[in-house]
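I hope you will forgive my troubling you with a question about protein structure. The full record is reproduced below for your convenience:

——
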Amino acid sequence: MQSSSPMQEQEKKPAQENSGKMTTSRERPMRRRSNRPPANLTFNYKDPDTLERFISHTRIIRTQITHLNRKQQRKLAQAIKRAQHLALLPTCEHHKFKK
């Protein structure tokens, strides 16, 4: 009679294939981000409604959240600063405009 060790039993099991899902090291399926901005998005300081989407409490939202690339983030920052200088956007929370 031959007793099989746990190591031998593991070798006999076929390797499980990944079912096409992206996984992390903990084998959890990763969420795909679907809320990415369009690639041809342009920022204009004269359009405060578009710029307000990227501002939270008068601070520019981070790139990791907005999913903008470096070039877009720089242009966004420049447009927001120009709009704030011309008083189209508030510069601090106390200067919020009432619509």
User: Anything to note?
Assistant: The first helix runs from residue 6 to 12.
